[in-house]
Amino acid sequence: MPKLVDRELRRQEILEATWRIMATRGADSATMREIAREAGYANGALAPYFASKDELVEAAFLFVFERTNDRIRAALAGLRGVAALRAFLVEVFPTTETTRSEARIVLPFWSRTVTDDRLARLSDASVVRWREELAALLAQGRVDGDVTVDTPDAVLVDHLLATAYGLQVLALLPDSPSSPATQLQLLDAAVAALGAR
Amino acid sequence: MPKLVDRELRRQEILEATWRIMATRGADSATMREIAREAGYANGALAPYFASKDELVEAAFLFVFERTNDRIRAALAGLRGVAALRAFLVEVFPTTETTRSEARIVLPFWSRTVTDDRLARLSDASVVRWREELAALLAQGRVDGDVTVDTPDAVLVDHLLATAYGLQVLALLPDSPSSPATQLQLLDAAVAALGAR
């Protein structure tokens, strides 16, 4: 096996171990030592791949973001406009164990963006990408006659994204989380409201 | 001055110093040592007030939450129904330097709720309180004829709260934050949509 592929495979294994630890035990518990153990490597074996905890958090966020984007791409196959928009958000709303475990990665990532400029710009780039994708679907919805509200698309996009982001917090509440049923009712109401006149 | 009052004043001073450091330099920079220096105390002088960093983060969150609640109470004077609901959310949406600095406290707090059960329950209790307050205002809006949508109030409440929470993230983006203008347009659209038939 060529060395480059080997390196990429190992990097992936480390990220998956990082992700498993962060999702179950939290970002603070994901020390370089713990992650090496989980991935089955000797202590110190991570250093050639990730120089610091911040690099690992960044890579873990990108790993989750791309995994979500893969699901979104699959979910959108054959759809357009508001149907595609709804399918997109279903993959982001934390209604399942998979999406809830992603929320457990995203919250510590957001926390670090407050003081880490590099992570903040990465967060910004991921939002910009989703804004563009949602805006394109809204534009299709306008063409199809399913989006008729006066509110500018850029404002609608930020409302939908803010809703999805806020649910990452509300769905993780221990005693009174936003239930999957509530989240999906809320999504259907938001999608239907796009067609209000 | 009685000792109890003295103690309460000191605790308040420490919390304000904690809050200033967390809002400007982030939760990770707010070490016990740094906070003592900012509050003008000797190193170690904080221990009788807060035994650990987690206790401080909890107290700082409660400090911000109560400050927000004080502003909400003032903003709601003489209002009811959807006008009060709008005024409530204006105090939570991060459109000003004050509310944006509160977002910089809230994000690290949420991050810690992922692994700290005590903080998670505190977060839950604050959400439950706001859900009840927003639900009471929606109920007034129904009486007044300003809230007419079919969506159950509990779902509307979680949509409004998720929006407010998600904006804590979107408003802190370094390159393309949700602008105050976008946030207020979004709020007006959300309030107007409550009256859809």
UniProtKB/TrEMBL annotation, chains A, B:
Keywords, alphabetical: DNA-binding, Repressor, Transcription, Transcription regulation
Family matches, as Gene3D superfamilies: Tetracycline Repressor, domain 2
Keyword Repressor appears in the UniProt entry: yes
Cross-referenced InterPro entries: BetI_C, Homeodomain-like_sf, HTH-type_TetR-like_transc_reg, HTH_TetR, Tet_transcr_reg_TetR-rel_C_sf
One family name in Pfam for this protein: TetR_N
DNA-binding region extent: 31-50
Domain HTH tetR-type as annotated: residue spans: 8-68
Protein name: TetR/AcrR family transcriptional regulator
Organism: Klenkia sesuvii
